[in-house]
Write a structure and sequence with these properties.
It is a single chain. This protein is an alpha/beta fold. The chain has a single domain, classed as Metal-dependent hydrolases (TIM Barrel, Alpha-Beta Barrel). It is built from nine helices and eight strands. Helix 6 (about 160-165) links the parallel strand 6 (about 150) and strand 7 (about 170-175). Helix 6 (about 160-165) runs parallel beside helix 7. The protein starts with a strand and ends with a helix. It binds zinc ion. The site of zinc ion has 5 residues, from loops. Zinc ion binds near residues 10, 94 and 203.
């Protein structure tokens, strides 16, 4: 079996507290090539970095998720810049906008998104973007700030939005959402994404693909998403995995 690269996981999550190391040992041995683990709250940066020290093929993305911008120190950008000097830190993320839950602070989210995009640009680092119920504002900021290397993560929008994102030069990454029964939109969007801009991820412990919905997700489950994407593209799953692995290597420089 070809090993998969999972470009977006959260191994700092408490869902992995009971067996984190056994699980990662097994994954790297059996089915997983490389992992980018995303530490996306101020207090998750150190735990994520510690994981990178333990596993040569586990890398970190550090940033502040739009839902986690409310409790961080005023010098968080300086701290993020300092930690990003670590060679195992390969991206800023996930950052963006999330208007899903009530009482979000739009202005504050936009400010944090913008300043982290600007930092990534100054550090020449790729960016992982999170956007939920905020497509217009996200696209407007991307149009204005034009990150050189960015990926729209866990994409489940329309084919039309995918085309917009591609026209801005972004990569598009899919999770297990692609395997869901009601995934018609995501399937159409995936068909729009050229193979050289396509990436795969789990967003684990969330977003388990069919047939594991409801279970804890882990990086081995990229295989199910890959099989679906390969079907859409009309190529072998192993060929698709090889292409997506290479895309991830180039994108993150890993
Ligand atoms: Zn995530």
């Amino acid at each position: 079996m070809v090993k998969v690269t999972d470009t977006h996981a959260h191994y700092d999550d408490e869902a992995f507290d009971s067996d984190r190391y056994e699980l990662l040992d097994r994954l790297f041995e059996t089915s997983v090539n490389k992992i980018v683990s995303v530490g996306c709250a101020y207090d998750r940066w150190e735990p994520t970095l510690r994981l990178t020290e333990r596993y040569p093929c586990l890398y970190a993305a550090l940033g502040v998720h739009p839902e986690d911008i409310y409790d961080m120190p005023s010098d968080y950008l300086e701290q993020l810049e300092r930690l990003s000097q670590n060679p195992k830190v390969v991206a800023v993320g996930e950052i963006g906008l999330d208007y899903h839950y009530e009482n979000y602070d739009r202005e504050k989210q936009i400010a944090a998104f913008r300043e982290q995009l600007i930092l990534a640009d100054r550090l020449s680092m790729p960016v992982i973007i999170h956007s939920r119920d905020a497509t217009e504002d996200t696209l407007n900021i991307l149009r204005e700030l034009r990150p050189k290397k960015a990926v729209m993560h866990c994409f489940s929008g329309s084919a039309e939005t995918a085309r917009e994102i591609l026209s801005l030069g972004l990569h598009v990454s899919f999770t297990g959402v692609l395997t869901f029964k009601n995934a018609r939109k995501a399937l159409e969007a995936c068909a729009e994404v050229p193979l050289d801009r396509l990436m795969l991820e789990t967003d684990c412990p969330y977003m388990s693909p069919v047939p594991h919905r409801g279970e804890r997700c882990d990086s081995s489950m990229v295989h199910f998403t890959a099989a679906k994407a390969a079907e859409i593209k009309g190529i072998d799953a192993s060929e698709l995995i090889n292409i997506c692995n290479k895309n991830a290597d180039n994108f993150f420089g890993i």
